[in-house]
TrEMBL record:
The active site is at H383 (proton donor). Keywords: cAMP, Hydrolase, Metal-binding. It comes from Macrostomum lignano. The lineage of its organism: Eukaryota, Metazoa, Spiralia, Lophotrochozoa, Platyhelminthes. Zn(2+) 2 binds at D421. GO terms for biological process: signal transduction. Its EC number is 3.1.4.-. This is Phosphodiesterase. It comes from the Eukaryota. The keyword Signal does not apply. PANTHER family: CYCLIC NUCLEOTIDE PHOSPHODIESTERASE. GO terms for molecular function: 3',5'-cyclic-nucleotide phosphodiesterase activity; metal ion binding. It is an enzyme of class 3 (hydrolase). The keyword Plastid does not apply. Residues 1-46, 261-306, 625-649 are annotated as: Disordered.
Length: 649
């Protein structure tokens, strides 16, 4: 019975279509253009470039009219044909009138969606209700009327739901500022949700005391959220950043010329509170050790790039763990005679055959990354040479990323990860800005350290026997430089929400569109993935095996405390989480609000390749949560004992 009914329905639709062609009126004459519409040069060819609202609406109108009339007419072909002909005639008149020429894709989408909305209103009988910006009661009345006419409650419910969904979409799209990325919508939403959660945590009981909650809130807001600016300010900032990047090489060259004695004097711990300008001095600086190392090109580099008595053991470790998540980089540091960066990069380049593909001499590779390693400040507890873990190399091994990136793009990613914190002074961008450091002045307070890292890395390529890119052609060099700069600048933690929004928007958009998540067709999409990959690597420590994760937590907090000590000595306000006496290391909130959302989005992108990473992160989170609960219980017990002692006294 269903099959026969389906065949009969198809025949009725064909009859309706034939009847429509017979009854369509002649094409009306064009009228003079009005103030609302545009020119009438829109020929059939031009209309083909417009949104398919007219043709699609005609087809939709015929189908919808067939459904509507069939409710009481039992699919009478003549009734359906007459209704379809009337709708089609109206739409055809609309098409032949002067239409606005819409050429931008976003406006085309909005125009098409509005046309669909108006058509649904007409076909459901809601056209007499308030427009789509009116209240929901008006829409419900219109839909209810349609239900009474059709005597079908399900139809009314579906029609009302469709209208509400379309209205919501229109309201969202109409309020988008077209000079910003659509992903900014997601970024703004994430920021609002995060602010709500942080305020809830600070205002209500959450286990941690109010002081700890406030510290966490201030730290996350000051570190991972960009400051709100109007668009003019943002455009000016982008222009200034571009100008600063152009001056980076010259600035780095000037820093190279500094003498060791000047650097030592500039970096010595300030004695007593002084003003920021006095603390920074004439040269004011954190440029540290931007000297030109003595580099010589040996004809044959040592095994694994460095001389070490533990070469065999190190080789075994790399064979077993270099391609796996959570290699013990501290063990690598010990076995490589404190040259973890050189050995890791050398091994990765060999494994990926970069030495052959890009004609890089092994000794040149060793020379360059020895120079990079020497420019890492080894007494930084956190931002030191072992900090440059081979995380990006592991992420690139995901099966879902195979054949997604070219060899040059992979080289750029590995290069960016290796140099993205070179010459890091162990303090934050905000510290440099607050102390009026010369780097902050040079880069106009925008991504100060990230710009500096790029400048140092590319300046070192100009040192003798260090240019590992010399056999790339001009186009390849320019492309690699652009990619590296884009990735390193994205490691500015204040860009976290924007990166997360871009990634989440890309994943969800491709899912909704039914496309392959990792079919990246242009530079922008590839760069979004590469930036988030390096950003994930930068925030990977909480997702490492617990022994490594806890060690990194200890190191990063010590570096924070060192900055807090300097801020106190300079008479500056101490940054959130940087005071030794009051800071409370709360890892759970950091994972919940920052790390987990990022890794969750990345796991969704490369599913199922990163599931084990997300699982490790969640296990670590549970461990820290248990420790926090135990600590809070002990503190409460101590407080109760103290109160009892006071009462007894």
């Amino acid at each position: 019975g269903d099959n026969r009914g389906g065949t009969k329905h198809q025949q009725q639709l064909r009859d309706a279509e034939e009847s429509q062609h017979q009854q369509l009126p002649e094409k009306p004459k064009k009228e003079p253009p009005s103030e609302v519409t545009t020119t009438d040069e829109a020929s059939d060819d031009m209309l083909a470039e417009l949104p398919p609202s007219s043709s699609a609406a005609a087809a939709a109108a015929v189908g919808a009219t067939t459904v509507a009339t069939s409710r009481h007419q039992l699919m009478n072909p003549s009734t359906v044909a007459a209704a379809a002909a009337a709708v089609a005639a109206t739409l055809r008149c609309t098409v032949t009138q002067r239409l606005p020429v819409i050429v931008t894709p976003f406006a085309q989408v909005l125009h098409t969606l509005r046309s669909v909305y108006d058509s649904v209103k007409t076909l459901t009988g809601a056209d007499n209700a308030q427009n789509h910006k009116g209240d929901s009661a008006g829409r419900s009345t219109g839909c209810a009327a349609a239900a009474n006419d059709a005597d079908d409650e399900d139809y009314a419910v579906l029609a009302e739901k469709t209208l509400k969904d379309l209205e919501w979409c229109l309201e969202q799209l109409e309020t988008v500022q077209t000079h910003r990325s659509v992903a900014d919508m997601a970024s703004s939403k994430f920021k609002k949700l995060l602010n709500i959660e942080l305020e809830r945590m600070s205002g209500g009981p959450r286990g941690a005391n109010a002081s700890t909650a406030n510290q966490i809130e201030n730290y996350i807001k000051s570190t991972f959220l960009e400051k709100d600016e109007d668009e003019e300010g943002r455009v000016a900032a982008d222009s200034a950043a571009a100008a600063a990047a152009a001056a980076a090489a010259a600035a780095a060259a000037a820093a190279v010329a500094e003498s060791s004695s000047q650097q030592a004097q500039q970096l010595q711990q300030p004695q007593g509170p002084r003003s920021p300008k006095e603390a920074n001095g004439a040269q004011a600086t954190m440029t540290r050790a931007l000297r030109s190392p003595s580099l010589s090109e040996a004809p044959i580099p040592p095994r694994l790039g460095v001389e070490t008595p533990h070469a065999d053991e190190l080789s075994v470790l790399f064979n077993e763990s270099l391609d796996k998540w959570g290699i013990d980089i501290f063990r690598v540091d010990q076995l490589s005679n404190q040259h973890p960066l050189v050995t890791v990069v050398f091994s990765i380049f060999e494994k990926r055959d970069f030495l052959s593909k890009f004609r890089i001499h092994p000794s040149t590779l060793v020379n360059y990354f020895t120079g990079i390693e020497e420019h890492y400040k080894k007494d930084n507890p956190y931002h030191n040479a072992p900090f440059t873990r081979p995380t990006t190399h592991v992420l690139l091994n995901a099966a879902s990323l195979v054949n997604v990136f070219s060899d040059l793009e992979i080289l750029a990613s590995i290069f960016a990860c290796a140099i993205h914190d070179v010459n890091h002074p162990g303090v934050t961008n905000q510290f440099l800005i607050n102390t009026e450091n010369e780097l902050a002045i040079m880069y106009n307070d925008m991504s100060v350290l990230e710009n500096h890292h790029c400048a140092v890395a590319f300046k070192l390529l100009q040192e003798p026997n260090c240019n590992i890119l010399k056999h790339l052609d001009d186009s390849q060099r320019k492309q690699l430089r652009k990619m590296v700069i884009d990735m390193v600048l994205a490691t500015d933690m204040s860009k976290h929400m924007s990166l997360l929004a871009d990634l989440k928007t890309m994943v969800e958009t491709k899912k909704v569109a039914g496309g392959c998540l990792l079919k990246l067709d242009n530079y922008s999409e590839k760069m979004q993935i590469m930036q988030n990959m390096v950003h994930c690597a930068d925030l990977s420590n909480p997702a490492k095996p617990l022994p490594l994760s806890t060690q990194w937590v200890t190191r990063v907090m010590e570096e924070f405390f060192n900055q807090g000590d300097r801020e106190k000595a300079l008479g500056l306000p101490v940054s959130p989480m940087c005071c030794r006496e009051t800071a409370n290391i709360e890892k759970v909130s950091f994972i919940d609000f920052i790390v987990h959302p990022l890794w969750e989005a990345w796991t969704e992108l490369v599913h199922p390749d990163a599931e084990h990473i997300l699982s490790t992160l969640e296990q670590n989170r549970d461990h820290y949560s248990e420790l926090s609960a135990t600590r809070e219980a002990e503190e409460q017990q101590q407080q109760q004992q103290q109160q009892q002692q006071k009462q007894q006294a």
